[in-house]
Every structure is written in structure tokens, then in C-alpha cells.
Amino acid sequence: MSGNEITKKPATKMEKFKDLINNKMKDQVASILPAHLTPERLCKVLVVEASRNPKLMECTSISVAESVMLSAQLGLEPGVTLGHIYFIPYGNKCTPIIGYKGYLELARRSGQVARLDARVVYEGEKFKVSAGLHPNIEHNVRGDVDRSDDKIVAAYAVAVLKDGSSYFEVLWKVDIDKVRRRSKAGRSGPWVDDYSRMARKSAIRALFNGGTVPMSFELATAVSSDGDDPHAKMPPIDITPIVGDDEPKELNGMSDLGAALA
User: What average pLDDT does the structure give for the chain?
Assistant: First the structure.
């Protein structure tokens, strides 16, 4: 090598990640983003999330692409700032986890739900659930009880539709933990940092998954694509750190993009 030649340094993981987001994906993302979320904003947020969680840069390009395209399709900004959707590394796969606020936002946009609420019940609070011909929920919220995560008894979601009809779904603690154990991100991210909100999110998802509340296309997509799917074909797992290699479900229309990123 002559003295005039300059050795080119190999690209860093962050440089490769930025190239994937800003160069290889930006045009595809821009074509499906809603007006309120620009491709520039989405790309910037993704780079910030990668700096917060460097394991994202170790995920496969196709799994990152699937998560980004889902985020764009739903019009939900990823990251902890809004809490709409989270990108959680599971081994070398990026798993999209839709947050509590993400479901609230999608329900608001649907135009079919007048009010959607979800709450958790703690030990010491009066909580009565009636089923049958006259279903009802009674919950007396108290501020003087221990509101630690391990004191949660149940979580429930209530939806009031534009026609005045109302529906609810209750998940007891055993049901919530069953969802968490079947989640690819059950050992990290919001399930660890914000268990109560994930419990509420799980109740909302169960409510929409029950078939009684009408869903928009975006809500239906969120319910079917959420990485917290309790019906996912994977065995229950202990909630302790481990690396896995389960493949995420492929979104429609992702095969061409996957080939381009390969």
C-alpha cells in the first residue's frame, strides 16, 4: 500500500443502522405513512431508539423492516416518548410491541368508539364483576392502598360505542402473566419497566380480540400483528433473561423489501 492510500474504516453498527433506515427504507416508509407522521420524524426517532437500546442494531434487517413498516402502516411513533409502539430485540429479531397508548390512539381514530378506558385493580379495592344477562363492573378506586405491581389483582377495559352500547373485558392476574409469558418481550422493555400499563394494554387487546367491539382496519392489524399475541405458536416461558430465535410473522408485501435488504 502506497503512502497516499487511505485505509477505509469498516462501518460501525450505528452507521449501518442509519443506512438501513435513512437510505434503504425511507422511500417505502414514506409511501404508507399518514400525514401526521413524516418519514424524517420516524427515521430520527428510530435512530434515537437504537442509541438507547444498542441491541436493536444487532437485529436482522428484515425484522427491523417489518417492525418499521408496521409502525408506519398504523401511524404509531415508536419509542418510550409516546408509548405507542415499542421495538424490542428478541435474540437477533426485532419484535413490535404495541403499547397501551397505541391502542387508545387507534381506537380514537377509528371513529366507532366514543370512550375507551382501562384500569388495574389493586388488593384492598372493592371490585365486583357480574356476567350473564346483565353484565356489569363495579370498581372503587382507593388511593391509600399499596399500588405496587405485585399487588395487582386484575386489569379491565371498558369500551362505549357511539350508539351508547358498552362492553368490557376482565383479565385476572393469572391471565395477565400468561400473556406476558407468551410474549417475546416478556423479559424486557415495557413489561419490566411499566407492568401496570402493559396489564391495561392486555385487557384492551383482549376486549377487541373478543369480537364484540367493532374494529377499524388499523385496529385489526394491530391486534393480529402485536408481538404480545397470547395465541402465538410458541411455548410459555419463564420471565427471566434468555436469548431466543423465534421468527416474527411476516407482514403482507414484505417479501420484496426483504429481498432488497438481504
Answer: 82
